[in-house]
Every structure is written in structure tokens, then in C-alpha cells.
Write a structure and sequence with these properties.
Helix content: over 70%
Mean pLDDT: 81
Shape: globular
Low-confidence stretches: none
Number of strands: 0
Oligomer: single chain
Length: about 350
């Protein structure tokens, strides 16, 4: 999977911006206080956070494997784990989270499994869409529990409204996009083909796809989505793996606070984690900096811990669910690409 100098520069700029955001965030929270809280963390609980994060990666890789099976692509559990880890790596190093990483993830799936690119893209998009359903469900459960047990403050009310708006807006947008998929395909063709021709005049090595080939790929993408949506048994299985993954992410945050000496109602983390993940769509690599900020803003009023503890918990949780997958996913991507190159050379 080739990465040009422009991609490297954009990733470097993104990480530079994220570092600035993180420094600003923790200077406000109190860097010395956060470091002090981290120094008192229970090492065994921190290790448990890492193990839970690894289990989360396994659960969501099984969801990816299930969806791949629907489009007639069979992969082993090990290879599915490597593919999902690679996809997570792409999401975590590109701006706008999954939206930015999906094209790279789809290319990795396509090259590794030998399926067409549009099938790979449909698989990745389906898994991302499936992951939305349990996240909102868990968040609503957590919100319901919190609302019945505690007084809801202004900040929590705002978060609750944002959650409800998200729960309504995303399915509605997906419905409109699906119903108008023919018109959407025409818009994509009208944009992609002229853009490719213009780019080819600047960079001669860039191909210039014709309208028929672009439309064929888009139609293939929608057909793959139909196949995934039509297999209700596999869809339910993939949703189950996704739900397990979200549960484990919530466990990760709960354990991060527990490691710092704070036992909070588990339902509060069911609410915080999905809302925090929304910040991954910021123009920062994997939402780095933005997710941490949202987590701290939610943890303090919802759990009642101080800002330094919330900041330390965000460091532990994100260390396990962001930096750990970056390391695993980078290695997984290198391994898969080495296999792909070796396979191409053998043909």
C-alpha cells in the first residue's frame, strides 16, 4: 500500500496539531497534577486496561470477519485481527477518524483478500455503520441510569441532547443516502471523473477512469452493501461482536478510573465512551486531543472526580485504545503488506 510524500506530510501536520491541542488541554487541567495522579495508579489495573483493549480489538475483528464472509471472502481469525488492527491504525493516523481512514482500510482489505476495492470499501463501511448501533444503545442506557440516579447538570443536559440528535440524524442521513443512491452515484461520477482527469494532467502517472468504470464500481459497492444488509443472521452476529467491543471499551474507561482509586457507576462509562468517540471525526489524527478533551469534559460532571483524575484516566484509557492499537496496527499493516508483495512476486 503506497503512501506518497503528501500523505506523510499531512499525517505529520496532523500529529503536530494534535500535540499542540494536548499540551494546551493538559496545561489547563494541570500537567503536574495529572502526572501525580498517574504516578499513584495501580499497575495491575493499568495492565488490565491493556488486556481489555486487546479483547476489544479481537471482538471488532470478529465483526469484520463476519461481514467479509457475507461478501464471500473467507479469512482466518488471525488474519481478520491483523486486518482490523491495520484498519484501526489507518483511522488513528488520518484526519477525521474513520471517514479519513476508510479508503486506506478498504485498500488494505482489497489487497490482502484479493477482493475488489468496492467490496472492501463496502465491508469497512458496513462494520463502521454496525458499530454505531450498539454505541448509541449503550449510551442511551447509561444516560437513562444517570438521569434516574443523579441530578442532571447543564453540561450533561447538553451532552444528552447531542446524543439524541446523533441517534436521530445519523440513521436519517443513511436512509436518505440509501434511498437516493442512484442520484448519489451520479454526483460521485460527476465529481470523480473530471477531478481525476484534472489530476492526470498534473501528475501523468495518475489514471483517468471513464464514467462507465466509476459507475460500475459504485454500483458494485451498493450491491455489496445490499448483500450485507440482506443476511440477517450474519448481521445479528456482527452486531453482537460490535456490542461486546463497545462494552469492553466502557470497561477500559471504568478500569482507568479504578486504577486511580475511583470506583464509579459502570453505567456512566457506557454514556461517556460513545460520546467521546464522536470527537474522533475532528480534523486531527484519530481525534487525538479532541477525544481526550471531550472525555475530561464528560468525566468530571458525570462521575464527580476532579479534573486531574479525569485527565489521568483519559491518558490511561487512550493509551490502551489509541496508542496501543497504533503500535499493533502499524505492525499488522507492515506484515500484511509484506505478504501482499511476496504474493504478487510469486504470481
Amino acid at each position: 500500500m503506497d503512501v506518497d510524500s503528501g500523505d506523510v506530510r499531512s499525517i505529520a501536520v496532523g500529529f503536530g496539531a494534535a500535540v499542540v491541542v494536548l499540551l494546551a488541554l493538559y496545561s489547563v487541567v494541570g500537567l503536574s497534577e495529572v502526572l501525580g495522579a498517574l504516578s499513584r495508579a495501580d499497575p495491575l489495573a493499568v495492565v488490565a486496561v491493556g488486556l481489555v483493549a486487546l479483547a476489544w480489538l479481537v471482538a471488532w475483528s470478529l465483526a469484520l470477519r463476519t461481514v467479509l464472509a457475507v461478501v464471500a471472502v473467507e479469512v482466518s481469525v488471525r488474519r481478520a485481527f491483523l486486518l482490523f488492527a491495520g484498519a484501526t491504525f489507518a483511522n488513528n493516523v488520518t484526519p477525521f477518524g474513520q471517514a479519513g481512514g476508510e479508503p486506506f482500510s478498504a485498500l488494505l482489505v482489497s489487497r490482502t483478500t484479493g477482493t475488489e476495492y468496492e467490496n472492501g470499501l463496502a465491508t469497512v463501511a458496513s462494520v463502521d455503520t454496525l458499530n454505531f448501533v450498539p454505541s448509541i444503545s449503550f449510551a442511551l442506557v447509561g444516560l437513562g441510569y444517570y438521569a434516574t440516579q443523579f441530578t442532571v447538570g447543564n453540561r450533561v443536559e447538553l451532552a444528552a441532547l447531542a446524543l439524541v440528535a446523533l441517534a436521530l440524524a445519523v440513521p436519517f442521513a443513511a436512509y436518505l443516502g440509501w434511498k437516493g443512491r442512484d442520484r448519489l452515484a451520479s454526483v460521485v461520477v460527476a465529481v470523480v471523473v473530471p477531478a481525476s482527469r484534472a489530476l492526470a494532467r498534473i501528475v501523468p502517472v495518475v489514471g483517468t477512469p471513464d464514467e462507465a468504470s466509476v459507475r460500475r464500481r459504485i454500483e458494485g459497492f451498493f450491491r455489496a452493501l445490499e448483500r450485507v444488509g440482506g443476511d440477517h443472521h450474519q448481521l445479528a452476529l456482527a452486531l453482537s461482536f460490535s456490542a461486546v467491543g463497545w462494552f469492553l471499551l466502557s470497561v477500559s474507561l471504568w478500569l482507568s478510573l479504578f486504577a486511580l482509586g475511583h470506583t464509579v457507576p459502570f453505567a456512566t462509562t457506557l454514556f461517556i465512551v460513545p460520546l467521546g468517540s464522536v470527537a474522533s471525526v475532528t480534523p486531527l489524527p484519530g481525534g487525538l486531543g479532541g477525544v481526550e478533551a471531550v472525555l475530561i469534559l464528560l468525566i468530571v460532571p458525570i462521575t464527580g472526580v476532579d479534573a486531574a483524575t479525569a485527565g489521568a484516566a483519559a491518558v490511561i484509557h487512550r493509551g490502551a485504545t489509541y496508542w496501543f492499537p497504533v503500535l499493533i496496527g502499524g505492525s499488522a499493516t507492515a506484515m500484511l503488506e509484506a505478504d501482499n508483495v511476496h504474493g504478487s512476486a510469486s504470481d
